[in-house]
Amino acid sequence: MLLMEMNSGQPESEPLSSENRALIKRYRLLDMVRSSPARIVVITGPPGYGKTALLDQLHGESRHAVRFECAETGSDALSFLAGIHRGINGNSREPGRGPGRHSSSFHRLISQLAAITNHLEGLGEDAPALFFDDFHEINCHEDIIYALDRLLSYLPAKCRCFLAGREKPALRLGRLAALGQVLEITGRDLEFTPGETYLLTRELELGGIDDEDINSWVAATGGWPWAIAISAQSVQRNGKNPADNVARMVAPGGSIYNYIEREVWSRLDPDTGLLLEQCSMLDTLDVTVIDAACPEVLVGNSCASSLREAADRGLLVWQGDSGFRYQLHPLFRKYLEFRLCSRSGRQDLDALHHRFALACEESGDVDGAIRHHAACGSYGEAERLIISGTMDSRDAGKAESLQRRLSLLPPAVRHKSRRLLLLEALLLEEQGRDDESLATLVAAERDQHGADREYRYECSLARARFLLGRQDDESLRAAREALSLARGSDEEAAAKAAVLDAQLSLGRTREAFELAADADTPGDAAAFQLSRLSVYYARGDFRAVISAADRGPGETFRLPAGPLDRDALLLACLSAGALIHAAKYQEALSLIINLLEQREAGGDLGQVLELLYGWAQAYGSREREGVARLKRIGEGAAAGSIFMAVDTGSNYLGSYLRRRGQPEKAALLHERLLNETGGASVNPVAKASACFNLAAARLKLATNEKDPLFRQGLADLLKAHRLAKRHDYLYTLNRVNFYRAWAALALGYEVTTLEVMKECLDWAARNAHHHFVYQELVATPELLKLCFADRSCRDRLVRLSASIGPKAIDLFSPFLESTDEGTKLNALGAVADTGGPDSLPLIYDLLKDESERVRVAAERTAGRLQSRIEDLKQLLSRREIEVLDCMVAGASNAKIATRLAVTEPTVKSHVMSIFRKLGVTKRSDAMAIYRSQAEGGYKCK
After folding, report:
1. Fewest beta carbons within 10 Å, which of 86, 434, 875, 900?
2. Could you give the angle at the alpha carbon of 563 between the alpha carbons of 562 and 564, nearest 5°?
């Protein structure tokens, strides 16, 4: 079948031969019509889009069909309907022609419509399909439109109607469309796909055309079927690349140019044509920009209505997402550009570009303004716009914007501007192209004679950031140079942050701490906050990190609204890590989960969050899941950057394994990590931590003080101490002191052990090292026993445990089972100061102790813990509350089991757990406590 009917619009210069008129079937469109239940199919599109050819193919597939050429129809409705009736009666494929114009009446019109519909109804399954071609020719005849509206409203279900034209029909099809009885095939649907273009090349036996050629061919023509067909014949004759043929044919004098001239341009309103001609300079036809740039073109008509009229008429102007934004067909754009250039001089074109640049800038289209400034040679204005909006290329969104805007300027222009070179260097660094970035940065810094202070500051700051990850002294020198240039200005905070980051990367924590303590820093405080808290975190002052974080109601951490940028995310990660160090695991988990839900950053920040999540889970309420997550992260994965100054996943996992009684695995893990990195690490913090963890694991593995592992452990401990002392890492120093005390105890030096432990506990309380002390003491019961026996050390331990909260009761619960009366009394005092309501079951066991002093102390401790109960939910689980509710209602164990859909032994187990937690032995006592709780009091039986 014919792909399209090349009618009078066909250029005479390249006629279609008869053998090439039958091209390919549009199976995609035919399937769309076949699968649709719609009775009315409306096909609209610009000239040359194959509307007639598609009608031919549909017509050929219909068993009974009647076709009407609307271009040959008169303007009289009765004549139009008479032609339809005559065509149906004769089942003719000839166009219906009426008897000519004459005066018609409404009564005769209705009679004719009734006769047609009755006749179609009588045909049943044999009702023909009605085809109307060039429907736009009768769009202006109101009588015909009215008659056809009535006919389509009563069209029998078995009869389909096909309407094809350049414009949307003026018919009122809204109600039928809502019922799913109308299928619209638009110009977008009629465009050729790469697959259809490939079939065309096979049909015409065009060789040497690959997929890339076909894609460029479809892009060059915008899928316009006529242009593809006519350029295909040209390829068939001269064998050139299809896209090159399109470029030649759209130039003045070419077939496509002439076709657009005759079929499109000649039919445009002059004002609309002039408007579109000037708008060929725009990528997107934005009404606000055109109104501002071309007011003299619009005489008595608005820009929006002119563009909408052109789009509705199908003049190769496509409407975008909004009713006020359009796009030009690529071939129509080329045609308009040729027309504009042929009648305008260079000065006129530059002036038009300048007007469009100002209009784009006013409307907020910075990319468009830069492009038009560059087109008219106003490179200074383009540079101003690029620099003003994209200085910070570390932001992912701004980096993408910067890359796009820099590409709008010629390379020769970019390389003449030192500021643009600086921006390009930052962009290349963001993309990981380090060598190119460094070369561009060197070019930007070359010959700074006459450069202003601000530019020299920006260059120094960029160099400091670029060299930061290389742990190079040059990074610190560049940062200090930037700081000297920024003194007293708003940039001082950013320069100080760069100095702090460089000092941290080199391990100069003491110098960084002295600079971070200077809170009187002009400029953006937020730029300085992250680096300052990174210094505190690296030193091990976790209390300062927690205190500086933004906390909302209920002492929970508050995240800023909206997406988090990199700095905000790092700051929140610092807070989460500090919370874990302070043994506030649940609060840390809540913050981390919130971060995982909101974050948009990936890469190293994603690893930081995953590591913190696994760390908090391992020591919190989801131990197995946390350990699995730490293992998934990978032993060599550096979890974070020098700004975070956190350890690797291996160090966290190794510490966990050692504390859980697996020092062999921990030692292998840390030893392999240090060997693989040559004794180095991403940052000195991780290196010091790895040395300490290996020392602790070997000391744990040693069977006695004469074991070689014990000596190796002490040597590693000394190495970690030197490294921590040199870099002023208070946290690692405190951990080293803890294991010095443990080693002294193993050697029998109890006095030295207690002195070192007192210092260790004081440091821990001052800097919130609660997690470390709590976990290590639980894992070293012999050292815990010695500390608990000493009153001064025990008091420090109780104060530290009170800061941790009820979870720290694990430190004292073993001493409640001691046979020594004094130890039990001391443990009861510690529990009273530290524990919560969930510690009550431990105390109830001592209410029957053989020692009267212990019984009295236990009763007092129980009273203090009971006074802290605000709700039984603090003490009992959800299921236990349900069981107690049933008990109070008088239900037996069997009835409770039935009501809760559990077994009776399960109910008995819950009842015994309730008795143990409430400190009672009878159901009546438990129910009495329940009732007293409801009345506002809690009393232990």
Report:
1. 434
2. 115
Using a 10 angstrom Cβ sphere, with 0-12 exposed, 13-18 middle and 19 or more buried, the burial of residue 903 is: exposed
- Dihedral of alpha carbons 383, 389, 391, 393, sign: negative
pLDDT at 15: 39
Q: What is the pLDDT of residues 482-508, one digit of tens each?
A: 888 888 777 788 888 888 888 887 778
Cβ neighbours, 10 Å, residue 349 = 15
Of the chain, the end-to-end C-alpha distance in Å amounts to 98
pLDDT of the residue at 105: 60
Angle formed by the axes of helices 770-779 and 566-581, to 10°?
A: 40
Give the C-alpha distances (Å, rounded to integers) separating 434 from 107, 237, 427, 601, 639.
Answer: 85, 51, 10, 21, 22
C-beta separation of 402 from 427 below 8 A: yes
* β-sheet bridge partners, residue 133: 69
**Count of C-beta atoms within a 10 Å radius of residue 352:** 19
Q: Which residues of the chain are modeled with pLDDT < 70?
A: 1-23, 73-75, 90-106, 239-240, 295-302, 304, 307-325, 389-399, 430-432, 434, 445-451, 469-472, 518-527, 549-564, 598-604, 634-649, 676-683, 870-871, 874, 933-941
Distance CA 877, CA 914 (A): 9
**Alpha carbon distance 378, 351 (integer Å):** 11
One-character DSSP codes across 663-709: HHHHHHHHHHHHHHTTT--SSHHHHHHHHHHHHHHHHHH-SSTTSHH
DSSP 130: E
Rounded Cα distance, 926 and 932, in Å: 10
User: Which burial class, exposed, middle or buried, applies to 413 when counting CB atoms under 10 A from its CB (0-12, 13-18, 19+)?
Assistant: middle
Tokens of 82: 């008479």
Closest C-alpha among 143, 153, 148, 151 to residue 174: 153
Cβ neighbours of 844 (radius 10 Å): 19
Work out the widest C-alpha separation in the chain, in whole angstroms: 126
507: left (phi over 0), alpha (psi -120 to 50) or beta: left
> Is 277:271 a contact under the CB 8 Å cutoff?
no
Q: Which residues contact 48 (CB under 8 A, 6 or more apart)?
A: 4, 9, 224, 225, 226, 227, 259, 263
Read out DSSP for 280-346? TT-SSEEHHHHHHH-TTT-SSS-HHHHHHHHHHTTSSEEE-SSTTEEEE-HHHHHHHHHHHHHH--H
Q: Are 555 and 584 in contact (CB under 8 A)?
A: no
Structure tokens at 73: 């129809």
CB count within 10 Å of CB 308 equals: 17
Strands 325-328 and 285-286: antiparallel
Residue 69: both structure tokens together: 């050429």
Q: Would the pTM of this model clear 0.85, i.e. be above it?
A: no
Give residue 184's Cα distance to chain centre.
36
| CA quadruple 214, 219, 222, 225: dihedral, nearest 10 | -10
Given a contact cutoff of 8 angstroms between Cβ atoms, the answer to whether 367 and 282 are in contact is no
d(CA 289, CA 361): 9
Mapping DSSP onto H, E and C, the string for 381-401 reads HHHHHHHHHCCCCCCHHHHHH
Residue whose token pair is 């080693």: 743
Cβ distance 744 to 756 under 8 Å? yes
pLDDT at 510: 82
Look up residue 648 and give its two tokens: 């690797």
pLDDT of residue 453: 76
CA quadruple 36, 40, 45, 49: dihedral, nearest 10:
60
State which H helix or E strand residue 279 sits in. Answer: helix 270-279
In a 10 Å sphere around its CB, with 0-12 CB exposed, 13-18 middle and 19+ buried, how is residue 467 labelled? buried
> Whose CA is closest to 87, among 7, 151, 33?
151
Token digits of residue 205 = 């036996």
Q: Phi then psi for 474, rounded to 5 degrees? A: -60, -30
- Supply the pLDDT for residue 162: 93
3-state SS class at 69: strand
Are 532 and 516 in contact, with CB atoms under 8 Å apart? Answer: yes
